[in-house]
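so my prof wants the structure for this chain in the tokens format not the other one, which i didnt know existed until like an hour ago. anyway here's the sequence
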Amino acid sequence: MAEKIKILGIMGSHVKERNTHFALNCAIESAKQFWDWVEVEVIDLSRMRINQCTASFNCYATGTYENPCPDYGSNDDLQKHRIIQKMIEADGIIVASPVYYGSVSGKLKALMDRTVMCCHVSPIAELAGRLENKVGGAIAVALAPHGGVELTINTIYMWMINHDMIVVGPGMYPPAGCITGGGAYESTSAKTRDPNAIRSDIYGMR
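here's what i got, hopefully its the right format
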């Protein structure tokens, strides 16, 4: 049998098993359901501690596959759960985030910043270019329509483009150019906070 395609999902919400988790799980399960040669895994940032980038750039000079971020070593979950390594090993990456003030969540932004050793900026970095040509998709979940999903998706896309990844569009329906990525909204008040609200967003969850 041919080698399986690896798809990695990154759940960027600070709240576990709510709407963003549901939206990402739908995408991941769809890939697994239709293609038996797809291997999937989800990294749930809600259960993890991701430290901020120190901007020391030590990862350029001394970062390795086994220890990509020397500043922290095994002192946070980026290293403990081998997140950088799993991203490098994946063929495709789907990133999902709730909208926090018009952009991605704090934990997801911290993770994005901590991937700097994989950029092409430093030719001496061992991991430079290791995310290049991986296929990337984005999902954003907002409290209401026009609640910042496209800005959030564009933030994820810009991170992917900076790594020279191949960004996936919305497909043939609706017509190309109408939206970017996958966006869904909860359609509920902040007081009720229904953890399954986006199930009723038939358009966003199509």
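also thought this was worth mentioning. The first strand starts at residue 5 and ends at 11.
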